[in-house]
Write a structure and sequence with these properties.
3 domains; 19 strands; binds flavin-adenine dinucleotide; 8 helices; alpha+beta; single chain; Uridine Diphospho-n-acetylenolpyruvylglucosamine Reductase, domain 2; four-stranded mixed sheet
Length: about 300
């Protein structure tokens, strides 16, 4: 491993590269062992070259945004985790459109839109992810989703080509996208918003944030909704009706405030969180015959 880490450093003098980086520092669950290598590219071209390097040397690699929908195993990740973050977070308003790099946080993007008197991103203000992670997941809340505002995306495709594609080709559905099925990296995006009153936009964002605080266990580390909404049901309601509010495995617990959230009550391991999710899905299947699918993405070795 030392060999290729050194080679990586030499090949990418511009990229920030760290070894044995604890993923508990980079995930909202605050759990997860170390990434063998943590790399932060500063351009799309650098990302393309990093991925090509990993492919050529048979090194596993994956992209990470703000880690707010991610469960990394306790044994960490045996390859290169590429962080699309602060080094790729520029943003510019162009009329009623916004262009931004994928590493910008949704909160910062929503505030930028608000400051420019642009409406349409209020739903996203309280989602703690990056723009790239939000496109990957087609993140949504309170009746809005990324699909409503996205017009174009700059991707790194599975063949290593950087290109812009129209949003329609992203196959955005409920918490899914072509980035998941086709292995696209997301680098930049263009969003179309509409003119609005900055004060009204600000008030709507504050109102939605207050609703989150009232209903969600934001005082504990989590990854938001743990499971996807099964057709015709609400995951949280099924979990509550199965009698699982407050149910724990080690430091992992089904939030009693909102059963759709698994929280880290303190000192939880990734294995405990995963085991709790497994047991919850099993109980809901037995009680109601409904299959719960994880919304949270798992990475690395458990
Ligand atoms: C308190 C809380 C509340 C939340 N509320 C909501 C909500 O209301 N609605 C909602 O939809 N989600 C919600 N989430 C979940 C999460 O914030 C979103 O899924 C978000 O879009 C994830 O973005 P991220 O940058 O953190 O992605 P990460 O967690 O870093 O990664 C998630 C997945 O996206 C991939 N990925 C990340 N960046 C890129 C990129 N640039 N290119 C390609 N792939 C990439 C990763 O490989 C991974 O598979 C919530 C989470 C928390 C903790």
């Amino acid at each position: 491993m030392e060999n290729w880490t050194e080679q990586l450093r030499q090949a990418f003098p511009g990229a920030e590269i760290r070894e044995q980086e604890p993923m508990s520092r980079h995930t909202s669950f605050q759990v997860g062992g170390p990434a063998a290598v943590w790399a932060e590219p500063g351009t799309g071209e650098e990302l393309a070259e990093l991925q090509a390097f990993c492919r050529q040397h048979n090194i596993p690699c994956a992209l990470v945004g703000r880690g707010s929908n991610l469960l990394v195993g306790d044994k960490g990740y045996p390859g290169v985790l590429i962080h699309i973050g602060e080094r790729l977070s520029r943003c510019q308003v162009e009329g009623t459109e916004i262009w931004a790099e994928a590493g910008i946080s949704l909160g910062a993007l929503a505030r930028k839109a608000c400051g420019a008197g642009l409406s349409g991103l209020e739903f996203a203000a309280g989602i703690p992810g990056s723009l790239g992670g939000a496109v990957f997941m087609n993140a949504g809340a309170y009746g809005g989703e990324m699909k409503d505002v996205l017009t174009e995306v700059r991707i790194l495709d599975a063949e290593g080509r950087l290109r812009w594609i129209p949003a329609e080709q992203m196959e955005l559905g409920y918490r899914t996208s072509a980035a998941q099925s086709r292995g696209y990296g997301i680098l930049e995006a263009r969003l179309r918003l509409r003119e609005g009153d900055p004060q009204a936009i600000q008030e709507r964002m504050a109102e939605l944030m207050a609703q989150r605080k009232a209903k969600q266990p934001l005082e504990y580390p989590s990854a938001g909704s743990t499971f996807k909404r099964p057709e015709g049901f609400f995951a949280g309601k099924l979990i509550q009706d199965a009698g699982l509010a407050g149910y724990s495995v080690g430091g992992a617990q089904v939030s009693a405030k909102h059963c759709g959230f698994v929280i880290n009550r303190g000192g939880a391991t990734a294995a405990e969180i995963r085991e709790l999710c497994r047991q919850v899905a099993e109980r809901v299947r037995e009680r109601f015959g409904v299959e719960l699918e994880l919304e949270v993405r798992c990475l690395g070795e458990f």
